[in-house]
Design a protein that fits this description.
The chain is mostly helical. It is built from 14 helices and no strands. It has 2 domains: about 1-10 and about 125-255, Alpha Horseshoe (Serine Threonine Protein Phosphatase 5, Tetratricopeptide repeat); about 25-105, Tetratricopeptide repeat domain (Serine Threonine Protein Phosphatase 5, Tetratricopeptide repeat, Alpha Horseshoe), CATH 1.25.40. About 70% of the residues lie in helices and about 0% in strands. The radius of gyration is 21 Å and the shape is elongated.
Length: about 260
């Protein structure tokens, strides 16, 4: 059986990347406290990452991390995400772990730390932080992280269990269905994989990688005609993606035989 890394070149990986999860109650505080944060956020949104980090560094007073109404949590959280964008994973982890210390009852930094470890393929570390999040809340995304991590180390049956748990808690988690489809393909459960991919497609029909994966499951099932129909949708949505183009050419060549 092919390994996860061998197969991923055919199955589009749509592991959800880190999203900014700013705490809404901060807007109730005096806005003057967060003027510098807002400036840094705007620079981040403009892709001016170094300028944003410079702005944060100019106002971040580490001695105030645990003071009431301190802007440091937001500043560090943003800095963590900027460092992820720049590929500075250790710096990102430093800020996000400090955020976890500042707000011990929030799962947001715990989840984001786990995603940083997934980006680094440090799956055991990702599992540890996902489990810390689960101690606070039965969050579907934490089970998703466990599923992705177990798939990453080749423990597909355990991955299947955690992904199914994530879906049971959030039936609209399309990326969990997609990852479940990948895992089922590795396990040789082609029909079940098609069902999982089809669910992902129903929830996110515009996602090119999901179309790609569904098409490849049809190839494995021997339905090249259906695969060609689906991969065409993927190619139209992502004409420059090398994986999708490779699979499109592969399926077209099979169809023409």
């Amino acid at each position: 059986m092919a390994t996860y890394k061998d197969y991923i070149k055919f199955l589009g990986d749509i592991t959800v990347k880190i999203k900014l999860l700013f705490i809404s109650f901060f807007i109730l505080l005096p806005m003057v406290l967060f003027a510098d944060y807002d400036k840094a956020l705007k620079l981040f949104e403009q892709g001016k990452y170094d300028d944003a980090l410079t702005e944060i560094a100019s106002v971040l007073d580490v001695s105030k991390d645990f003071e009431p109404n301190s802007p440091n949590y937001n500043l560090r959280y943003l800095a963590g995400h900027i460092h992820v964008k720049k590929g500075n994973y250790e710096s990102a982890l430093t800020h996000l772990k400090r955020c976890a210390e500042i707000q011990k009852d929030s799962i947001n930094p715990l989840i984001d730390i786990a995603f940083v470890y997934i980006d680094q393929k440090r799956y055991t570390d990702a599992m540890a932080w996902a489990r810390k999040a689960l101690q606070l809340k039965q969050a579907p995304v934490a089970y998703y992280i466990l599923g992705v991590s177990y798939a990453g180390i080749g423990s597909y049956w355990q991955a299947k269990e955690y992904l199914e748990k994530a879906i049971s808690l959030d039936p609209e988690m399309y990326y969990a269905y997609n990852e479940l489809g990948n895992v089922l393909m590795f396990l040789g459960r082609i029909t079940q994989a098609q069902t999982a991919y089809s669910a992902a497609y129903a929830l996110a029909p515009s996602h090119a990688f999901i179309c790609n994966n569904l098409a490849m499951s049809y190839v494995q099932a021997g339905d090249v005609k259906k695969a060609a129909e689906i991969i065409e949708k993927a190619r139209k949505r992502a004409p420059d993606n090398t994986v999708i183009v490779e699979n499109y050419n592969r399926i077209v060549s099979l169809k023409d035989k």
